[in-house]
Amino acid sequence: MIWRxxxxxxxxxxxxxxxxxxxxTRRTVSREPGTSRYGVLLxxxxxxxxxxxxxxxxxxxxxxxxxxxxxxxxIGLGLTWMGVALALWARWHLGQYWSARVTLKEDHKLIRTxxxxxxxxxxxxxxxxxxxxxxxxxxxxxxxxxxxxxxxGYWIKARTEESMLxxxxxxxxxxxxxxxxxxxxxxx
Length: 188
Known about the structure:
Blueprint: H1 2-6, H2 8-21, E1 28-31, H3 34-52, H4 70-94, E2 103-105, H5 122-138, H6 141-169, H7 171-179
Antiparallel strand pairs: 1-2
């Protein structure tokens, strides 16, 4: 099974880059309330636990969704790498304005380069795509339930972020919203 050996590699690379790049961020001047943060974090953690572990032992969730094939595993692995690449590219473009929490940083700028030219939340989109790819490679119901929770968590987080960016950047952010997609790219 390809996922057992290879599906973890992109996630390890993503995690290592995230921890290292977190050391170079600007000072936070405003952030979301803790209640909002921890509620979303709980949803995402449960989603990732379902995605990556067989810890939850519910017979129906441990069954395969479709007949597992090598092709499905390869497609899943490819989507995982694509999602991780998108998240890394977006994180690189965000640079010192990144935070694990929804925040505004000192001298915050609205980023519109790289993946931000067609997506408002490419990091979350990348995580969602990588989670979907991982679920396809593993092919168990628990993984797809995990993906639903992960997408929900990032959707809520993105909405909170949009509210903060709209208040900070006003018409500039509204114009950016008209030209870009929320979690799915907008090319028209």
